[in-house]
Amino acid sequence: MAIYSKEEAQKLLKKVLAYSKADECEVSLSGDASGNIRYALNAVSTAGDISTLSLAVSSTYGKKSGTATINEFDDASLEKVVRRSEELAQLAPENPEYMPLPGPQEFKDAITYVPATAAMTPDTRAVAVATSIKVAEDAKLEAAGFLENSTSFYAILNSKGMFAYNTDTNVNFTITMRNAQGTGSGYAARGYNDIGKLDTYSATKIAAQKATGSVDAKALEPGKYTVILEPVAATYMMENMFRSLDARSADEGRSFMSKPGGGNRIVDRLMDEKVTIYSDPFHPELPAATWSRDGIPLEKMNWIEKGVVKNLSYSRFWAQKKNVQPVPFPSNIIMEGGDASLEDLIKSTEKGILVSRLWYIRMVDPQTLLLTGLTRDGTFYIENGQIKFPVKNFRFNESPVIMLNNVEALGKPERSISVESYRSYLVPPMKIRDFTFTSLSDAV
Amino acid sequence: MAGMSLGSIIIPGRALLGNPVPLDRPWFYDDVSKKKEMADVALNSARSKGATYTDVRIGRYLNQFVVTREDKVENIVNTESYGIGIRVLANGSWGFAATDKMDRDSIAKAAELAVAIAKENSRLLSEPVQLAPQKGYGEVSWKTPIKKNAFDVPIKEKADLLLSVNDAAMKGGANYVNSILFLVNEQKYFASSDGSYIDQDVHRIWPTFTITKIDEKSGKFETRDALSSPVGRGYEYVIPNAADKIKTPQATLYKNSYDMLEDAREGTRQVIEKMAAKSVEPGKYDLVLDPTNLYLTIHESVGHPSELDRVLGYEANYAGTSFLTLDKWKSGKFNFGSKLVNIKADKTEVGTLGAVGYDDEGVGTKQWDIIKDGILVNYQVIRDQAHILGLKESQGCCYADNWSSVQFQRMPNISLQPGTQKMSPQDIIKNVEKGIYIIGNSSYSIDQQRYNFQFSGQMFYEIKNGKIVGMLKDVAYQANTQEFWNACSAIADKSDYRSGGSFFDGKGQPGQVSAVSHGSSTARFNGINVINTARKI
What we know:
By secondary structure, chain A is an alpha+beta fold. Chain A has helices at residues 6-17, 75-91, 115-118, 122-138, 200-213, 231-243, 247-251, 316-322, 342-347, 400-403, and strands at residues 24-40, 43-61, 64-70, 142-158, 163-178, 185-192, 224-229, 277-279, 301-305, 308-309, 334-335, 351-355, 358-365, 370-375, 379-383, 386-390, 394-398, 407-410, 414-417, 424-427, 430-440. Chain B is built from nine helices and 28 strands.
């Protein structure tokens, strides 16, 4: 049984805490029960159910801390992991940045758990995948895909009496369709808390359409183009930036949020006024955890409001040093958009490139958040509001900050997943001018 | 590779048949005879239910992290995970189950479940799994040839090392420094119905840092990462040894051991120099790439495209496919690189991350050619892929990152062989008219078929008429894999040969990580496109 109820988790954590001899102790228990099915060349290649449960203990003497984890739960192992963390703490030098553990807190319940997703079985996964493979066979294409659902929980108890518990469900589906000649490729990705929202048939149809449509791609010269990024491409492009919304690194002068002359860019206008980025753990389309791992309740929080930097996250230590309230790192990210559909954005474009997906994005320069990566699985030339022909994939070198200064239009936000972290975001399709492509790729 | 069906299931629980947990020792080894007893329970249970082949992996996976910044130890963490994974062939199909319940009944049930899953999966088979034969080794063992177990070194000694490194950087003028020591110990016991009982004790270590220099007025900053590498060694790696140092006018470079303190001092000088370096003029340059840079280019542009499962399409939905298609290999003429380019796959080289005695399906490890005199001659395969290339045995490339993960084809060490003519990096540089000498790795990106890549580095030195004339910044190089390797015009000799590597090579869905090394000597590549990466926001 990997998924403990709130009461079961609290009972075990109390038992572990009873072994503690340290000045302060925090114990956390995490469990994950997931099932997956993977397929390639129109046949299932792997399938499985995985359950894991892990206990972490952090002990502190004065300002000396140590952490140990274990996945064995007999009494001797529970005591061992506590002693091991205490031994590490006693051997550790003092950390002047250590913050005393928080006392009891009130946390609202999250809306992240959907029983139907938790109840998925190998059979329901197999049916969803069979639907996808049928689309591939009918279209004479080769499907490679992955469907995974998970139920997770995370619980913390500390020696000051703070207890927090959250459980959530998630289902992700990714599908790549290719033709047998290897000259066309398409992709779709979907992620939800609720399995009821997942339609593997329509996602596979979109991937198939892109695979067929991307055959015989023409080479365009690299350079600056107006691009329309579909949500899955825009999400991946912005994920690095979302992770860098931190006050300390900005104040220390080593972030794109650092201000010349010192300090950070809160209150500065950094992006186009169409850009508003916020977090809200209670958003019905993207529910998330309601407390942070350092024991602070999470509420709605604006990060970028009409292009202006409104907030950065402050750890408890950094907040105390700067004499401000701690701002926890968020549990979700949402970007506002408009009402336009992807088709509307295409129709309003005189000349441009539709980017279905981006791939292998890596940081080139943290100073400017310059990123490099490539287009993949369906890149198309747009002229006079219509898709004219597929084009060969490009490598880009572009910063999401520059990109969000060059916003022409935003469409309707939709739930999308990062193709690297598999985290879900709520992000609109976006039309961007002067997006920088630096070379061509032969990859399909 | 029709017929590679797998299933897996994991059941958590409590230990009964394992060793009683000693409280007085931070680390211990489970008794081998107990592990054999547990493995036999699984082997017998699977056979009785109809498995035609079974392998069992009992694993205890230990990690330790010591994390510091400036004069503070931020975190000290030990992690541990223990359990058993059982893989079977039944009705021609794979099944897999894993559990952390280590009692006799739970192990037997997990084995039964693996057989049931295999039988279920066999309904979806178009062709049964063809497993290359493998002789049983009996009861054998292998251990990373470490001199000093890093887990036995007192925490204080490790923390003091990192704090002394940080102190050196701060005294040298750095604004910030982060350093970390990362230790890995995989205690793996493998048993199979072929008659192997293999006990392995695998050790890895990675000391690293990032030094940051800031100009508050302009808001500019630069960083310099350590020139160390993650390695398959013990604590002896961080004990400096003059014989392992290569001193060049630009930097000290390291072979089998690493002087972290010295590198921090030099790195601090270099990051300050980077602040004032000239921004590169984009264009074509002859690149002279140090092994600390070239290893990552080898990993991405040679290692990944020669994985047979990618070539066949099994990774299409995640990591991608490969431009090294079977027709190119079959032709025997595919010009991957210039005649100087010889690239070997290897699972045996001492000190590397890929070195083990046996892989995770009980195959003794070895070395083989991937690129011979510039021609593609082979791939990386495991037991159920060998027949596709007409091979009679596996190349021993199977790995799982945990007892709970199913093993699959992972990259062995892939290394560029040194030049046969006596040649030093300085000999290479003196023949370059317009070039850049690059040390250390940074940004990396490559497309899903491994044609187009872009890499950056830690330090860039401009070469004019055979001489290094100063430092550059904002440099990244872009190339097509085949054009790049055909532009290889010089490789330094074996006295310059060094390995770099990664702890975190990602592959598969669900994702698994693997540790792998790539060796080379300094090499020259003519006429490579360099871009300028400076921007304003």
